[in-house]
Structure prediction request, 434 residues.
Amino acid sequence: MLPVTEPAGRRVRTAALELFAERGFHGTGIRDLAQRAGVSTATLYHYMGTKEDLLAEIMRDSMRLLLRAASPTGTGGTPTERIARLTRIHVLAHAARPLHTRVADDELRALSPGSRAEITALRDEYERFWQSAIDDGVSTGEFRVQAPGVARLALLEMCSGVARWYRPDGPLTAGELAARYVEMALGLLTVDGIRLEPDPGAVGDMDRLVAELWPPS
Amino acid sequence: MLPVTEPAGRRVRTAALELFAERGFHGTGIRDLAQRAGVSTATLYHYMGTKEDLLAEIMRDSMRLLLRAASPTGTGGTPTERIARLTRIHVLAHAARPLHTRVADDELRALSPGSRAEITALRDEYERFWQSAIDDGVSTGEFRVQAPGVARLALLEMCSGVARWYRPDGPLTAGELAARYVEMALGLLTVDGIRLEPDPGAVGDMDRLVAELWPPS
Prediction:
């Protein structure tokens, strides 16, 4: 149970965040929420509207904060500088608030179509900062990635993953972690594309192995 | 409802896979499972044991297949070749069986401690192929990544993300997609670490912005 010194509305939101992150949206019952927040179910309904409203609020806040951080950092400067700044911000945000960002990243499927469209629009707006920095870098020749849209998705998945495993009491501070991600992100984007000339025979062997182990269903 | 021409046990497993991927383990009820599989709940219990048994089976199969693919491909050759092969296999597997791999990646928290320990051990065994290839590459100087453990996590998150968005009817075949990921993975690992000398003032500004937007809770 959360400390009762906090206002009930805040306790409800914190309880929702913790439980959605631990058990998922669908795994969290109304009783669990009321119990964790230390309120009656009647009070709970007063503060939360529906359970989905709570989820949508967590996601909306999470995306809006990322957007507020991205708008000054994702514009201006060279594409390399913009990607470095976006990566630093994204990693620091995911290290600082892993529950918020994990819920926002994982539970989109749990939203009804209306809320999903709203959150998806915010996410698309945020991702455009990344995509335009990547595309501009390809234009200037700073980046040599062959599929810029795939690179955006790869970078975002890689950086968001921090929310799943980073612990502030581990060997790296969040700032050091962010610095390592900036290096990796820039390395990923500046691949020369001819670093490896794979033996076509070996590729064929691998693809046959994959087709055998994971047959098309 | 799944076609009744398939044996009931197989229908139950397919229904579980689809529903766990769509709604999450906790979001899937026994009735949903029986309905999708086209069996009675009594038949369902006969085939599935508990709902968690079904989940553990999906995860166990998924990890064992990755391990079977990694053992011939993750050993032998240079570290660059090993990472290229592991990346190709991982991406192809996630593109070919997105539901299996997504459930395996996302639902670990839903398992009871005993099953979780078993699946975690398989996952650790699989990740050791990646880590040893990265560490060997750092030793030989092929890779210049500063935090090899972080690089492993970043690579795996990036490659597993394919299961969330890749569609075979999109612009890239799975083989082309895998080729792009191999390039990005090798770029990420061969970053020279001095590509960007960030302005300490700018880093300070960003960190202050992050601390303001995402205050320590």
Summary: The radius of gyration of chain B is 21 Å.
